[in-house]
Design the sequence.
């Protein structure tokens, strides 16, 4: 009977493998100890410009005009973005979203305001 390895605690990939005493995820390069308690992993709380906690699926509004690198267009202040997805910060961009007319894009939480329901 083959032993099953746990999914990656960082990206939930099922393709983990053993490397000595460590478990390794080939998808995100995360390494952890097999006997490590994953529940103690630090949880990052992402907040908008006003300090309101953001969650996956929230709707936000852009609070200032944003120039898009490599484009002559810009995202205008007041643009509403629906269904955001929070991600590990990459160059400060901790929100992944789709903006009509621009497509998939990364935003910084410091330039958005959560829309109240």
Sequence:
């Amino acid at each position: 009977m083959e032993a099953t390895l746990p999914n990656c605690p960082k990206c939930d990939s099922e393709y983990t493998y053993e490397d000595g005493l460590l478990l390794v995820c080939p998808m995100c390069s995360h390494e952890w100890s097999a006997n490590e308690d994953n529940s103690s992993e630090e949880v990052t709380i992402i907040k908008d410009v006003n300090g309101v906690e953001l969650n996956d699926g929230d709707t936000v509004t852009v609070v200032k005009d944003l120039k898009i690198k490599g484009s002559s267009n810009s995202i205008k202040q007041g643009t509403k973005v629906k269904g955001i997805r929070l991600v590990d910060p990459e160059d400060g961009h901790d929100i992944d979203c789709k903006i009509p007319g621009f497509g998939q894009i990364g935003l910084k939480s410091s330039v958005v305001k959560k829309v109240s329901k």
